[in-house]
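Incident review: delayed structure delivery

Summary: a single-chain prediction request sat in the queue longer than the usual turnaround. Root cause was a stuck worker, restarted by the on-call engineer. No data loss occurred. The affected request and its eventual output are reproduced below so the record is complete for anyone auditing the incident later.

Affected input:
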Amino acid sequence: MAKIDLTQIGKNLLKKTDSGEDIEIQSLWKGQTVVLFFLRRFGCQVCRWTAAEISKLEPDLRANNIALVGIGPEETGLHDFRELGFFKGALYLDEKKKTYKDLGFKRYTALSVIPAGLGKKVRAVAAKASAQGIQGNFSGDLLQSGGMLIVANGGEKVLLHFVQDNPGDFVPLEDISKALGVSTNAQEGQMPSCNDEVCTR
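Output delivered after worker restart:
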């Protein structure tokens, strides 16, 4: 994985979803450490479940002056995502997908997204999401992958850089809290067990 140049990436613009105002991404790590969760898309069932999981950390993050931020690649699906309360942090858009590209979040091709989307990891998380009543849709850019970036206060250093290799990949809560050096009582959602034919709770 290439070294992350926070000075360069910090100048990339994001759009606040509540006001439409453009901000430089580096403003998010001025005066605080920040967890940046890059969603594939707002309608993605796996992304919604992952957002709900990460949100379990929000009280512990807030108590330690750590911001929780979600970033989507487009506005499609944002209204439902927000209204259904999947994520407890601030939401931004990277409509030019510049930061997605700079962080190495790949784009699938029309042919590669189908097997990736039907793989065991995706089925496992989708089964867990369904069991918790979290549904998704196929609106928006189906080809974009996501990940996570955790940046120390003031952009001092990258604490975690995670790139999805598969649409079902995510960072466990324990790994996030370890990267931040904070303790949490948040309980991870139990992953279903899967074989090639079926996923169960």
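Verification: The radius of gyration is 16 Å.
Action items: add queue-age alerting; document worker restart procedure.
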